[in-house]
Amino acid sequence: MRKISIFGATGSIGQNTIDLIRRDPDSYDVVALSGGQNIAQLAADARALNADIAVTADEMRLDELRAVLLGSGVEAAAGAAAIREAAARPVDWVMSAIVGAAGLAPGLVALEQGATLALANKESLVTAGQLIMGTAATHNARILPVDSEHSAIFQGLIGEDMAAVERIIITASGGAFRDWTLEDMARATPEQASSHPNWNMGQRITVDSASMFNKALEVIETKEFFGCAHEQIEVLVHPESLVHALVGFNDGALMAHVGPPDMRHAIGFALHWPERKTLPVERLDLAKIGALHFREPDLQRYPALRLAHEVLELGGHAGAIFNAAKERALDGFLAHRIGFLQMAEVVEEVLTLLSPSHCRKNAEMTLDTVMETDHLARKTADQVMQKLA
Ligand code: NDP
Ligand code: MG
């Protein structure tokens, strides 16, 4: 039996992970599950999977969690420190699926224990790529990407030499506003931005798909995880969302990963790696699909993509600034405080204000320096949004 823990268990990725685990209960010994506000789901899964401990991120809801777990034998805990402590419990495999920068610390703790980290939380690599890759190397721990594009690249690179890689292409569906005009995008509401044409995901990443901030995070994630130059990374709009990424080699070959838009594909690959096992996902009928389309993204409509390359050129803590400003701008948009296109304006302004002091390429990066930068960028984003409103 493999010991596993799932952080962000109540979310979209967490629930897909639990779906796979529950199909094969005798293979897994579940140690810790964490959630946020969805106490009922957290408790139900902790009971069903017979977890050792269930942790909610919200300290105010500890009594409630304790009450619903009464008599189950599952320990209850709450707060960010409790999540980190749960991540320190020794296991073989950890799913990192908390949304946002809050996912960084538990992932680092899991790597320090030498666990294999299935990394869905892209913000970890964006805010602290050097730190998280360095921690994995120091503790001889493995990171397996769960973001579908990065799982696809990883699979395309099996048995290959990075030196032979010329380029990496990640695809984007184009999100909710793929065919909208710039004028219409400026007036888009959070409700309109929260529906995705192909993928069923958490609300924040769905809105980030419409703005392509999600793809911008993924460009940074690609550079940090695979160690390529940012000039080697390309983005193509691919409305069908069936080709997740392509790796281009020096002999002109392109290796494409094709699969249904179902995250259990990438989660299952990370769960069973280095083996491949049967997964409960749709088998594609390519004859029925008929055609796959690709086009270049319009950088005017998606300024986030341009900003991603600027972040990689800046280096240092630019990723932490970018992500934190993006998270606050997204909060502002969801709260109807700023418009859809203003999210990128806020992020660009925060980067301009903070990069002279926070983007020295050889600056030391620790969890503290990342979190300090994150806090400062959130505060700065709030000030910028106040001026805009
Ligand atoms: P969801 O919003 O569906 O779930 C987020 C999870 O994190 C929930 O368990 C939530 O708890 C918990 N959570 C929220 N805030 C905090 C916090 N401050 N501290 C601790 N836990 C918290 O997100 P997704 O599952 O969609 O995404 C998770 C991560 O995976 C993100 O980084 C996303 O970018 C990435 N990802 C997601 C994909 C997808 O298909 N969904 C694809 C590729 C990457 P609760 O719900 O109980 O409040
Ligand atoms: Mg993705």
UniProtKB/TrEMBL annotation:
Binding site for NADPH: T10, G11, S12, I13, G36, N38, N121, E123, G202
Enzyme class: oxidoreductase
InterPro entries: DXP_reductoisomerase, DXP_reductoisomerase_C, DXP_reductoisomerase_N, DXPR_C, DXPR_C_sf, NAD(P)-bd_dom_sf
Lineage: superkingdom: Bacteria
Residues annotated for Mn(2+) binding in this entry: D147, E149, E218
Domain DXP reductoisomerase C-terminal: 259-379
Residue intervals of the 1-deoxy-D-xylulose 5-phosphate reductoisomerase N-terminal domain: 4-129
Every 1-deoxy-D-xylulose 5-phosphate reductoisomerase C-terminal domain range: 143-226
Keywords: Isoprene biosynthesis, Magnesium, Manganese, Metal-binding, NADP, Oxidoreductase
Ion transport keyword on record: no
Cofactor: Mg(2+); Mn(2+)
Pathway in which the depicted protein is active: Isoprenoid biosynthesis; isopentenyl diphosphate biosynthesis via DXP pathway; isopentenyl diphosphate from 1-deoxy-D-xylulose 5-phosphate: step 1/6
Catalysis: reaction(s): 2-C-methyl-D-erythritol 4-phosphate + NADP(+) = 1-deoxy-D-xylulose 5-phosphate + NADPH + H(+)
EC number: 1.1.1.267
Residues the entry annotates as binding 1-deoxy-D-xylulose 5-phosphate: K122, S148, E149, S173, H196, S209, N214, K215, E218
HAMAP family xref list: DXP_reductoisom (MF_00183)
Family assignment from sequence similarity: Belongs to the DXR family.
Function: Catalyzes the NADPH-dependent rearrangement and reduction of 1-deoxy-D-xylulose-5-phosphate (DXP) to 2-C-methyl-D-erythritol 4-phosphate (MEP).
Record-given protein name: 1-deoxy-D-xylulose 5-phosphate reductoisomerase
